[in-house]
Design brief:
- The complex is a heterodimer.
- By secondary structure, chain A is mainly beta.
- Chain A is built from nine helices and 47 strands.
- Chain A has a 22-stranded antiparallel beta barrel.
- In chain A, helix 4 runs antiparallel to helix 5.
- In chain B, strand 9 and strand 10 form a beta hairpin.
- Helix content of chain B is 36%, strand content 10%.
- Classes of the chains: A mainly beta, B alpha+beta.
- Chains A and B meet through helix 1, strand 21, strand 22, strand 26 and strand 27 of A and helix 1, helix 2, helix 3, helix 5 and strand 4 of B.
């Protein structure tokens, strides 16, 4: 059905194009503000809140994923780094914080007007990235706009001539931070201490501890630094780039080619296999953007971008489980390999990470992506002066699959005791596990995604006297098909925009969308979204003529409604499925069940964002540019569970209802001071954004105590117990039960011991339980994000720096083995140095060690809460642009050599690991790069 | 031209637009008509309702509800079942949260009845088995009505007065303001339903074409009626002691016993943990069984209740109490007591040996409870302090006893040959009818009267239980009405132990009232056994210092419900 529809859309698109008569092209203009759908307004006339990063801004970063070049670049866009494979280096975008209740309130990313993945293209292709933030810009996107829109515009050709740029860069990277795991001696001592404090016998004798310390019996008493064994000093990435930008006659073109490839951090010094088991990645991107003037009035625009990419890894170890083993396996678990060459391993820790790298074969993944779109624009002045029409189609496709070649191997577990008297080992027990096998082959499907779009647009421009009017109406049909069920989306957006200006001083605008999708019920697919905006160019008023310091001053304001489609299908219809079976007959035969699964919610609605924005753009003293925006958003119709407002007497599981309301408000400020003194050019920039949300309504379950209520607090507010220090040895604990000396029952433990966390009994019921949690710290999503930029240049030699930071953000440090040591066979790091022991109880800040999963100590509480604010030096680069006379001799237009580094340092409280990634994954990276670019 | 294009686009938008957006990948039924127009799906819908029948296998957060009564103590602390008796129970902290579950069952039945009415499934009429299938189908409505009545009884015994929605209600406003129906009206409704449907259901499904044992029988319907009337006549719901209520209960029990279509009889063995075919528990084919809640193969109940120390046991055990052990008489019919010095005695008994206090007891004793010295899986169970299965072993029994009844010794939970086996939960058995009969007739007519049309007097009914081969006790005789009541109370404690009766019986009798001559203690006792060279010394200890409040005679209605619906008045005291 959907394919038929797509074909129909196509057929009609082309027939409409054929019906049209031929017009002239609109050259790209940097003083234009892009609003998407190929609509842009002159910067002077813009009334919307739009943040922009240019190609030049982005080029300060070397990135695998262009998302990483946006740190601190656009006010109101929070970019958060995640760990993971080095080639993914994924980021999370949040436009103006968070306004709904789900944690996946991602912004819509459009590349050249179509929904595409930013990670699939390269920085070299990007002309600019704009972030649409207010209703007047977002209302155009109807049911898809409420979480913000990120518009990526790729580069295009030039009117005449050819400009070629070639560059090469090599990047060396290393983990930004790795925690310090304790060595075998430290681990064994810690384990003894933990057992002792739990009233159990020591596991390790003095002789064994000495053996760990002295390395006397390395086969049985080994001390391995797993990170040192598994990782090398650095990984590297090579990036080759060539772009051709030109035009001649009726044709303009931009062509870019990029190859990026590199190797990860795994040590590969044992040359054991005739294939690599490194964490490798390589990709080739190619793009052609063509603009062809078919006739005097007909313009054809054709963009084609493609990528092939592949990864390589050890056969059975994804980087995620490899790194989780490196973190988890204690230093004394077993040696990497025994003196006879057999791999180490144990029944508890079955995966020797070094052996997993070398001995499990290899696995590769392959991914192919193409993005193609074509637009025909026709000037219709033959009908009416100022009228034009355009039609666009796009097809995007992405598919990936895995090839795995895996094998098993033999590893050995060996133990021996130490004789106290003559120090020899005895009682050797050797157990071998596994077998050496040949490679086994397996191919698996990764995923696929197809998207198709068609857009028809009418545009009308008219000037009369001091008045100027611009109007656009468009129709957009979109189809998206993923793999699996309920991954197919069909959407239609009928949108329009009217902009009016008087004397270039007073501006007014109206944006509308009537958009729908297949998530909403039949007969009720569409919703209407209007927004109005106004602008006032104060600096053009006569009373400003004498204010010499102010070169430019504009006030903007907008208000309106934007939507967000529900993320669940079929909520509007009742659901009968599932159910439990029952058994009948003398054979106890099962008969499958069927039940009314949940009620329908016929009133399903998209989220409704009412956004108001007021902004100021100014330029003073010819040197300082200033932008300020303040916003207020009220998001309603958010899906929340019905269960807390419906009596269970109804007898059927509750559905979701659109009762949720969240309020979000904030400000964004950016300033740039640029000047030059002779040949010395400099600029300083600063920007900051603040957004704070509050849950107004979420159908919250009834709370017996007010302080337990989440409503009224920010979304994702961290809750936990409030600690009151640690129990000490002189505090009079009985040591046999879970009642404190002052009669408070600690329900999370059976026995309360010195060194356990002491909590505040919030409701005074003499019990520490889940009703004693309070709001602690902030959210894990920062409320404040800020950056500073610096550029100094003298005679072609320059320095660029960008510092970025966040604040009003918290983390619970709860990663087992890094922050929560030992229990469930977890490891221990130097983070636990501040733990409670009878000797250090005066200064200790963390609870005692225990080999058990101590539910009293290991739970969300202020003991583990940290301020997760940081200030990072995201980039620092030194460049030299060769002077013109040198260039001339070399027949070059331009050439730059540069050295740069990213994530060079961070000032933060967490210190042990990257404050942005506290999990046991491939670490976030620091990199040092050297590069050369040449243009002719 | 311009117009042409515009019209074209507009028309296109309207036509394609709507079609494009009507795309759906729905893979479930969205209309009850789709379910009930198909015979197989209709059967499945009913199966799901059957599945809502309760069991007490680890039904309260891993424990048996018995551990919230004086039958047992649950090993694991900080669990829901402990909160019944430690003061943590409240409307905010509702335990045994079945309010929603039973209302779901009731709605399912209402929906079921609404849609199956008048179906003929004519599309199957030329299939050979059409008539047989329709014969099955004709019974469905009565089965469903029984289940609905059963769910209402489960709600009423917990909460007292509860709302009875009239059919399927989707209007939130109506549901959020529904009023309670008084307890007695609910019982009347259940009784009327039972009378209406009983004779439409078979007494034995083996007489039917599909041999679908496990479905509701006429005997089950009559038992529900007896039990409902008994509860309604009990002091909790009969504060003025209206004798006609007892008469109604007695008549219903008599109706059961004189019904010649019912072929129920007692097993000669109470329970054999090695051979399920001998008793009524875990034995679907037992003649003593009236109605059961079936289950598939499993071993989780065994993992929970095998004595700790046996490999594979996980210590989520419901451990029988000394309170219960004290209720078992010697085989010659005398009470056994242990005094404060730890001395056992059974004044009057000629068989009791204080050195072997667990021997020569009621035959049901060692078939219900594993004691120190019992044989289990070829080993001798040691619950004494320091023994293989006693404290201080982690999660060992705090009472000195482990549960045997329901636990299948023929299941392996360790080694290479772990097995799972079938379980079923006895909902109604013949013994309950005799006990209900004895209790109701005693209250209505006294211990030795045989009213006209009745089968026997109350004392005889009790002796039918007490002196049958499976119990082996001598009969009682010459008791007054009050004395017989006390004996019936103890007999129910023993005969129905761990069958989810005691928790409710002590409530309906209001046994925590100090004015009640059969008053029981709220504290839970166990036995501490010390071993010295093969001989044991005993002391009776308080295992759990329990809290009772009279409000606990009924459950609190979950706060969420009373908060949403102001017509749902909270039960007294909560």
């Amino acid at each position: 059905m959907n394919i038929r529809n797509i074909l129909k859309v196509l057929f009609v698109s082309f027939s409409s194009i054929l019906l049209l008569v031929p017009m002239h092209a609109q050259p790209a203009d940097s003083s234009q503000v892009h609003l998407g759908y190929d609509i842009s307004v002159a910067a002077d006339e813009n009334k919307a809140a739009v943040g922009v990063a240019t190609a030049e801004d982005l080029s300060k970063f070397f990135t695998v994923n262009p998302g990483n070049s946006l740190y601190g670049q656009i006010p109101g866009l929070t970019v958060m780094q995640n760990g993971g494979d080095w080639w993914t280096q994924s980021v999370t975008f949040r436009v103006r914080g968070q306004s709904n209740l789900s944690n996946t309130s991602a912004a819509l990313v459009l590349i050249d007007g179509f929904e595409r993945s930013l990670a699939a293209i390269t920085v070299a292709e990007i002309e600019s990235i704009s972030v649409l933030k207010d209703a007047s810009a977002l209302a155009l996107y109807g049911q898809r706009g409420a979480n913000g829109v990120i518009l990526v515009t790729t580069k295009r050709g030039i009117e005449e001539g050819l400009s070629v740029d070639v560059s090469y860069e090599r990047s060396f990277n290393q983990p930004f931070r790795l925690p310090q795991m304790l060595d075998a001696y430290g681990y064994a001592n810690a384990m003894n201490e933990a057992l002792f404090l739990d009233g159990q016998d020591y596991l390790y004798t003095k002789e064994q501890l000495d053996a760990y310390k002295d390395g006397t019996y390395p086969d049985y008493y080994s001390s391995v630094n797993w990170f040192d064994e598994a990782l090398r000093e650095y990984g590297y990435i090579d990036d080759f780039n060539a772009t051709f930008r030109g035009g001649k006659g009726r044709t303009r073109y931009f062509v870019s080619m990029n190859y990026l490839g590199g190797e990860g951090l795994l040590d590969q010094s044992l040359d054991m296999n005739n294939y690599s088991t490194q964490l490798n990645y390589g990709r080739a991107n190619i793009r052609t953007n063509l603009d062809i003037e078919l006739t005097k009035t007909t313009m054809l625009k054709f963009n084609l971008a493609g990528r092939v990419s592949g990864t390589n890894r050890p056969g059975k170890a994804t980087s995620a489980n490899l790194f989780s083993n490196l973190y988890n396996i204690p230093s004394n678990a077993f040696p990497v390999y025994y003196s006879d060459g057999l791999w180490g391993g144990s029944p508890t820790y079955t995966q020797n990470p070094i052996a997993e790298v070398y001995e499990t074969g290899y696995a590769t993944s392959h991914e192919r992506t193409y993005y193609a779109d074509l637009t025909l624009t026709q000037d219709l002045k033959a009908i009416t002066e100022g009228l034009s029409a355009s039609a666009s189609v796009s097809f995007d496709n992405n598919v990936s699959y895995w090839d795995q070649k895996t094998r098993d191997f033999v590893y050995s577990y060996r133990t021996a005791d130490i004789d106290e008297i003559n120090g020899l080992t005895y009682n050797e027990i050797i157990t071998d596990y596994g077998e050496n096998t040949a490679l086994a082959f397996n191919t698996s499907f990764g995923g696929q995604l197809r998207r198709a779009n068609s857009i028809f647009k009418l545009n009308y421009d008219k000037q009369w006297g001091l008045n100027s009017l611009n109007a656009t109406a468009l129709f957009h049909a979109n189809s998206e098909v993923g793999d699996g069920q309920n991954t197919t989306y069909h959407r239609i957006n009928n949108a329009g925009l009217v902009n009016y200006s008087y004397n270039n001083k007073y501006f007014a605008g109206l944006t509308m969308s009537y958009s729908g999708n297949n998530i909403l019920p039949e007969e009720d697919h569409f919703r209407f979204y209007p927004a109005v905006s106004m602008g006032w160019m104060i600096s053009k008023e006569s009373f400003m003529e004498n204010v010499g310091a102010v070169d430019y001053l504009k006030l903007r304001a907008s208000t309106g409604l934007v939507g967000l489609e529900p993320d669940v299908f079929h909520l509007h219809i009742p659901k009968f499925s599932g159910g439990q079976n029952y058994l009948y007959t003398d054979e106890n035969e099962s008969l499958g069940g069927l039940e009314e699964n949940r009620r329908a919610n016929p009133d399903i609605d998209p989220e409704k964002a009412f956004i108001s924005n007021i902004g100021l753009d100014a330029k003073v003293f010819g040197k300082l540019r200033l932008n300020i925006d303040a916003f207020y958003e009220k998001r309603s119709e958010i899906l929340v569970s019905e269960s807390n407002s419906t009596s269970n007497v109804i007898g059927v599981a509750s559905t979701q209802v659109t009762d949720g309301i969240v309020e979000n408000k904030g400000v964004e400020v950016s300033a740039l001071w640029s000047n030059s003194v002779g040949e010395f050019k400099y600029s300083f920039g600063a920007q900051s954004s603040f957004a704070r949300n509050k849950i107004i309504e979420q159908n919250e379950t009834f709370r017996e105590w007010d302080y337990l209520e989440r409503t009224g607090l920010p979304v994702g507010q961290i809750f936990g117990l409030q600690d009151d220090g640690l129990w000490g040895t002189d505090d009079g604990l009985s040591g046999i039960d879970n009642v404190s000396p002052n009669g408070v029952l600690y329900t999370f433990t059976q026995v309360l011991k010195p060194g356990d966390v002491k909590y505040v009994d919030q409701n005074g019921d003499d019990r520490i339980d889940e009703f004693d949690v309070i709001a602690i710290g902030h959210n894990t999503l920062p409320e404040i994000s800020y950056s500073f930029t610096l550029n100094l240049e003298y005679k072609g030699l320059g320095v660029d720096a960008l510092f970025q930071g966040v604040s009003n953000v918290s983390q619970i440090l709860n990663t087992a083995g890094i922050f929560w040591p030992l229990y469930n066979n977890n490891n221990i790091t130097s983070f636990s140095n501040d733990r409670w022991t009878p000797a250090t109880q005066e200064t200790a800040t963390l609870p005692r060690l225990t080999p058990e999963n101590n539910d009293n100590n290991y739970r969300n509480s202020t003991i583990w809460l940290r301020d997760a604010s940081f200030l990072k030096l995201r980039t620092l680069q030194i460049y030299y642009q060769l002077p013109e006379n040198v260039l001339k001799n070399m027949k070059l237009e331009r050439s730059t050599v540069f050295l740069r580094g990213h994530n060079l340092f961070s000032i933060d409280e967490i210190q042990v690991v990257d404050p942005e990634e506290t999990g046991k994954v491939y670490p976030t990276l620091r990199s040092f790069n050297v590069g050369l670019s040449v243009g002719f | 031209m311009k117009r042409k294009i515009l019209y074209f686009l507009l028309t296109f938008t309207l036509i394609t637009g709507c079609e494009l957006l009507d795309y759906s990948e729905q893979s479930f039924y969205d209309d009850p008509e789709d379910i009930f127009s198909n015979f197989n799906r209709t059967s499945q819908f009913l199966a799901d309702i059957y599945n809502r029948l309760p069991t007490d296998y680890s039904s309260v957060d891993g424990a048996m509800r018995s551990a919230a009564s004086d039958e047992a103590e649950y090993v694991k602390q900080n669990t829901d079942v402990q909160e019944f008796t430690n003061g943590q129970w409240s409307a905010f902290n509702s335990l045994d949260a079945n309010w929603a579950n039973y209302y779901s069952g009731i709605r399912s039945v209402n929906l079921f009845l609404e849609y199956i009415n008048g179906r003929t499934y004519e599309e199957y009429q030329y299939i050979d088995t059409y008539e047989d299938e329709m014969a099955r189908f004709d019974k469905y409505q009565y089965e469903a009505r029984f289940l609905r009545a059963f769910f209402y009884f489960e709600l009423a015994k917990r909460y007292g007065d509860v709302p009875m929605p009239d059919g399927v209600i989707d209007d939130i406003v109506v549901i959020n303001s529904i009023e309670k129906t008084p307890f007695d009206n609910i019982i009347t409704y259940i009784v009327n339903e039972c009378d209406a449907i009983r004779d439409s259901l078979p007494t034995d499904w083996n007489d039917m074409i599909y041999l679908e044992t496990g479905r509701v029988t006429a005997g089950a319907v009559q038992t529900l009626k007896v039990r409902s009337l008994l509860y309604s006549a009990s002091p909790l719901h009969n504060p003025t002691n209206d004798v006609t209520k007892w008469e109604a209960a007695a008549a219903a029990a008599n109706e059961f016993l004189i019904n010649t279509d019912f072929n129920y009889s007692f097993e000669n063995v109470y329970y054999n943990s090695n051979d399920m075919s001998q008793g009524v528990f875990n034995n679907r084919e037992s003649n003593e069984l009236i109605f059961e809640r079936r289950q598939g193969n499993a071993n989780s109940f065994e993992r929970s209740n095998f004595p700790m120390g046996f490999e594979g046991a996980n210590g989520n055990a419901t451990c029988p109490s000394q309170n219960l052990v004290d209720a078992y008489q010697t085989i010659d019919g005398y009470d056994v007591i242990i005094d404060d010095n730890g001395t056992w005695s059974a004044p009057g008994s000629v068989v009791f040996d204080p050195a072997s206090p667990y021997d020569n007891r009621d035959l049901r004793f060692q078939q219900t409870i594993i004691v120190n010295g019992s044989d289990w899986k070829g080993s001798t169970v040691e619950t004494f302090y320091g023994g293989a299965n006693g404290l201080p072993v982690a999660d060992a029994t705090p009472t000195g006893y482990y549960l045997k009844k329901h636990v299948r010794q023929d299941i392996e939970i360790s080694g290479s040959n772990v097995t799972t086996k079938e379980h079923m939960w006895v909902l109604f058995k013949l013994g309950e009818i005799y006990l209900n009969y004895a209790e109701a007739v005693n209250e209505a007519y006294g211990p030795t009267n045989v009213p006209g049309g009745f089968l026997m007097d109350a004392t005889t009914a009790l002796n039918n239980i007490r002196s049958r081969p499976a119990a082996g006790l001598p009969p009682v005789f010459g008791l007054t009405k009050d004395e017989l009541r006390s004996v019936i109370i103890r007999e129910r404690q023993v005969e129905l132990a761990f069958e989810d009766h005691r928790f409710w019986d002590v409530r309906r009798w209001q046994l925590f009232d100090e004015s009640n001559p059969d008053n029981v203690t709220e504290d839970l006792y166990g036995i501490e056994i010390l071993e010295d060279n093969g001989s044991f010394t005993y002391s009776k200890i308080i295992v759990d210092d329990r809290l009772w409040d009279d409000k606990m005679y009924l459950y609190p209605i979950p706060y969420k419900e009373t908060n949403i619906n102001s017509n749902l008045t909270q039960n007294p005291g909560w």
